[in-house]
Design brief:
Distance between the termini: 31 Å
Number of helices: 1
Largest sheet: 10 strands, antiparallel
Number of strands: 20
Oligomer: single chain
Order of helices and strands: HEEEEEEEEEEEEEEEEEEEE
Shape: globular
Strand order of the largest sheet: 14-13-12-1-20-19-18-17-16-15
Structural class: mainly beta
Amino acid sequence: MFRTVLAAALTAAAMPAHAGVFDGTWKADLATAKYTARPIVRLLAGGVYRCPTCTPPAITKADGAFHPVKGDPYTDMRAVRVVDAHSVTSQSKKNGKLAYETSYTVSPDGKSLKYSWTDHTGPKGDVTGEGTDTRMKAGPAGSHAISGSWNPGVATNISDNAIIATFVDKGDTLAFSSPAGQAFDARFGGPFVKIANDPAGTLASVKRAGPRTMIETDKRGGKIVAVTRYMLAADGKSIAMTSEDKEAGGMLHATLNKQ
C-alpha cells in the first residue's frame, strides 16, 4: 500500500545482461519515469479507511490507533489518522518496529492528491519520496476528501538510496547491492534467491536474454510479483528499464544512467 511501484522496482535495481557490460553504479533518471496502472480507490467514511484496490485490500479504523493488518507482507499493524478535511496520515509497523509513514493531502479544488512517504525498513537509512495522484471520480457524499477513484502518478523526489544500484557480473552469477541495504547474489538462469533486508522476504532470479538484455523476476509468497527487463544502450551509458508489477497491474518505464 505504501511502497510505490517505482521505489520497489528501482530498489530491486537493474542487473547485468552480459558479462561485465553492466558493471558499475547506475542511477534512475526520475524525469524519464512513466507509470500506468489501474485506478486506486480510497474511501474514508464512518471512521473507517478502506482501499479495496490495494494489495492486499486495506481496511483500518481511522482513529489514530494501531490495528492489526492481515495479508500484507510489509506490515502487521497500521494506524490511520484524520488531520483535517483534506489531509490524512498513516503509520505502519512490522514486528513492533515503525516501518512506513505516509501523508496524503488533497488539493483545495479536490482534483489532485499529493502523497509523501518515509520507509524506515532499510538497515542503511530511510528511503523517502513523494508523488501526486489525479482524481478520476469523487467519493460518496459525506466522505473525506481522500475518497474516490484516483489515477496513480509516478513517484518523484525519491531519495538516492532507493534509485541507485551497484552490481558486478561474476560470469555465472550476479552480485547486486543498493545504498539502502538490499543485496543478493543470483546465478544466471538459476533458482530464486532471497533479497537481503527486504522485510517481506522477496526472492529474485535473473537470466540473460541477449548480449545487452537481462530479465529479473521477483517472487513473494510463492507468486510472481514483478518481471523487469533491462536493455543496455549501444553506447553503454544508459539502461532502458521496463517493469511489470503483477500485483498492482502497473507498468513502469524509466532510464538508468551510468554514474
